Amino acid sequence: MKAFTKSHFAIASAAALFATASVASSHATKSSNADVAARHMMMEVVAKNMGILGSTAKGEIAFNAGLVQSAAGGINMLAKIDPTSLWTEGTEQGAADLSRAKTEIWSDPAGFAQKFEDMATASAVLMGAEDLDALRAGMGPLGGACKACHESYRGPKN
Amino acid sequence: MKAFTKSHFAIASAAALFATASVASSHATKSSNADVAARHMMMEVVAKNMGILGSTAKGEIAFNAGLVQSAAGGINMLAKIDPTSLWTEGTEQGAADLSRAKTEIWSDPAGFAQKFEDMATASAVLMGAEDLDALRAGMGPLGGACKACHESYRGPKN
Questions:
Q1: B72 in contact with A, Cβ within 8 Å
Q2: Which residues belong to the signal peptide in this entry (chains A, B) (predicted)?
Q3: Cβ contacts of B118 on chain A, cutoff 8 Å
Q4: Which of B17, B44, B59 sits opposite A48 (nearest CB)?
Q5: How far from A65 is each of A79, A84, A128, B1, CA to CA, in Å?
Q6: So what's the pLDDT on residue A156?
Q7: Which CATH number fits the domain B33-153, given the four candidates 1.20.120.10, 3.40.50.1820, 2.60.40.1920, 3.30.2350.10?
Q8: B17-68 tens-digit pLDDT
């Protein structure tokens, strides 16, 4: 234990607490590029939050206004990250392992940023959903925002 | 398609977008109890956000203030859900499938609510972490809040 400081040990403990959940990653391998790995982790959180919203919309879990607000809010916060801070130069598909980022992200930065604004707008609407009908009505626009960005800026599977 | 309204189709489309990620759940089976299933989904989102914070603390992904703030913020929002709205009566371990909720949750509601406040406090500190040192310093208290609650209110594996 001598090689570890107290804070490193605390970090390791916190990480171990969640090891069970972390094993079940949708990415079998973590990218060797720290920004690509961070993007994938961000997308996994978006996907998990979408899972809460989708399962609620389908009636698989009980409608819970607080949970819906938190899930939509989690997506909303992630949508407000400056995309240029994660989609850094030289991390397009082919240049960084596991990346699926199209070069259009860098040739059309305004268009890419707009997709994040669309995600923020659609998720903000869902943050205010007070019943199942409102949630269901907002799912299409949010799913559409995801799809539109993926179609324009995400390349084929590696 | 006649049986589906436009909004149902939109929900299905949104769900399909994330099917790949959703398959990789840490819970092989979804509880038949809607509240237990919702709790598990909530905890998966907490775990994914903890993964971002932990991977950043360990240097596996690049420090990104926006991503750290969003991950900590996602946990913070989930911490603010009224626990009684998800830990509903009759959903303790043994009563609802896949539940690991101890009966202490209902016999000591104030103590359980305090654990959520502790999670909110520790995650709020991390929302303001502007560098790696601040993040690392805040990981121990947050991991400790997780651990303390699990030790007091979560039963053994099913």
A1: no
A2: 1-24
A3: none
A4: B44
A5: 21, 33, 9, 30
A6: 98
A7: 1.20.120.10
A8: 444 334 344 445 899 999 999 999 999 999 999 999 999 999 999 999 999 9
